[in-house]
Each structure stands twice: as structure tokens, then as C-alpha cells.
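To fix ideas, we close by showing one paired sequence and structure record:
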Amino acid sequence: MRQVIERAAGKPAKALALLLLFLMCLPLFAQSGFYLKDGDRVVFYGDSITDQRLYTTFTETFVVTRFPNLKVTFVHSGWGGDRVTGGGGGPVDVRLKRDVIAYRPTVVTIMLGMNDGGYKPFDEPTFQTYATGYRHIVETLKSALPAVRFTLLQPSPFDDVTRPPDFAGGYNAVLVRYSQFVKELADQQQASLADLNTPVVAALRRASEIGGDLARSILPDRVHPGPSGHLLMAEALLKAWHAPAVVTGVEISAADQRLARAENTKVSALSFRDKISWTQLDNALPMPVDMSDKIVALAIRSSDFVESLDRQLLRVTGLTAPRYTLKIDGAEAGTFPPEQLAEGINLSLLPTPMAKQASAVHQLTLRHNNVHFARWRTVQVPLEKETLSSAEKAIAALDALEADLVKQQRAAAVPKEHRYELTQTVRE
């Protein structure tokens, strides 16, 4: 690189300026790639919010559907009530050895703090216990897994937005102070950082404005988010991992009768006869989001989830009829005026075959996680002090069952070819 700069120094000022601009942009280029790599094994570690297996399974399904050829495995190791010192699953060193290190992960996410703050105003001794314990977790994992990569999660919020705080300043302000420590530790460790607090609080405020009391259902008990809140948390984690916003992007010019753009998909057999039709083979599936759930829909409308993670845009310009009907594989996806089609419709929000396929993938995500949970919490841990060959066989059988479900999940995530038709809507 030094030789390149030295050669450029003898060039005109404009060329040298361009080179310097390129060098300044290199860090941005390096950050643009997705964080997870082929062969990664991710362990999600945390307390009851991780133990809900919602933001974690949403994150897993996103990765599997957006990167169907990426070989990444996921283990969900949250335990309700955990603090940095451990909890119901045992002391922290037991938890780390059994529930993290044993899986030899390449990536570990950590979210702790909700219980550590004690649900009381900030006090220094309680905070120091948290800071010391958190550092111990990181150092223990680094010692056992020298190549491990960390994503530290700033703890999700206590809902002081839709209901009055329990004391002056509110408990979430305490979590924000704990979050600042997590950020500083991530900087010191050169770890990835995801803020699961700030964007959820912002969405709660927006949801309160447009949804009234329904916004309380995003964090029903003020601590544990429902699926809607976990979607927002998954978004924050995926953003920290530089997840791509685009599922696919297709633009067709009816006036010129041509394909203007195809992003992350292959378009073929484009025809402009009595209707516009084409075949499409995508490289990814949309994120399955249940917009029929009014609480999920409120959370999505109150955030930038779709714009940031789930853009599956179809644009058709140059149309002249009053309305058009879009069919995919013969099933109607919706009717639209030409102005809306020219602006672009987001297929990820429509009942498409791709969305149904993605939902089937998510069901397999849940199934394999349920099998792992049963293996871990009803066989392995309760019987870990027993010497039972039958227990070992049961664990091996459940591991094999989970592996089979993961294979099904990956096979189900492979995109399929679909036939699109856009016709003038016939008025009755």
C-alpha cells in the first residue's frame, strides 16, 4: 500500500485526492458485509428475555431465509432469572461451561442486565457487581474459546413509556446506565454491539401516539416483550450484523417493454402480450411477519423494520389502465393503481407464495429449538448428576432429531421459481 501511495504522490492532485478518498472509504466497505460467515455457530446467552426464544428465533429465521446457502447453526441458551452471577441454571461458571463453551461457538451474543439492576434506583455497589460479573463472563469465554467473536447486547427496556415509572427517573434509566457500560466493554474488547433498548423505546413512544393503549401489549408485563417487541429487538441485532435490507428488487418498464432492473433475483420469460408476465427465481425469501396480528402490525408501523430489513420491491412503470391485478402462481396478491406500481409495492407485506414459504421455515426454526429445549432442560440438566446410559442415549436421539429438523429447515429455505402476471383489473 505504501508503494501505491508513493507512486500516486507523483501524479496530479486530482488522482491523489481520489486515492485518499478510496482509502478513507475502506473501513466502510469492510463493514458492509454480513457479520456471520459460513461455518459459524452462534450461541445466544442471557436471561428470561433470551429464554423466551423469540428475538433469537426471529434472528435465526432471517439468516436462514436471507442467506439460504450460508451454513450457520444456532443454539439458544437463555435461562429465566439469570444475572451475571448465574441463576436457576446454576452459578455462572457452570452455565458458561455447560450451556456455551460445550457447543464450541464462533459467535456468542450476551444480554444481561434486566435482573442485575434489581428493579430499583441506580446504586453503585449493585452496578459494580454487574460490571465485574460481565467482565468475568467475557474473559472466561475468551480463555476457553480464543477465536470467539462477541456481540454484546445492550439490555432491552423496562417499559416506562406506556405506564408511569415506579420511581423517579424510572427503571429503564438504570438499564440505560448499564447499557453504557456494555458499550464501553464492547469498545474495549473490539466486540460487536447491538442496542436493544433505544429503538424499542422509540417504537413504544410512536406506538403510543398512533395505537393508544394497544402499545402496552408490546411489553405486556413491562419486562418481557411479546413477539412484536422481539421483532424490534431482532431488527437491532441484525442491523448490528450489517444485515441487508433488500430481499429482491425488480423494475419493469411497460412503455419500453423491457426489464429495467433485477436485484438479488433472476427474471426470465418476460412477455408483454395481453398481459405482462414473467418468471422469477429469487436468491432469498422475505422475513415472515404476521401483519394480521394487530400488535405486530402496530410495532412494524412504529418502526423502520420493513425499510431496514424487508424490502421486496416490485416497480412497473408506464402503465395506463386504472387498476392492475398481480397474480403469483395463479393466486391473487393484490390490485393496485398504476401510480402505486410505478412507485413500487413491497411484496414482503403481501400474502405471496414466498411469504408462505418463509413462514414454513420459521415453523421449523421453532420446532428444532423446542427439541433442543426439551433435550437441555428436561433431560440433560435435571439428570446431569446421574449416571444413566439411557439418559445419554436420549440426549443423542434428541440431538439427531434436532439435526434432522435443521436439515428440513434449510431445505425449506431454498427459494423456488414463481410465475408473475400483471393484468388490467376487470370491473364488474
Residues 38-243 form a domain with the Rossmann fold fold (CATH 3.40.50.1110). Residues 211 and 298 are 7 Å apart (CA to CA). The longest strand covers residues 246-253. The chain has three domains: 1-32, 38-243, 249-354+414-424.
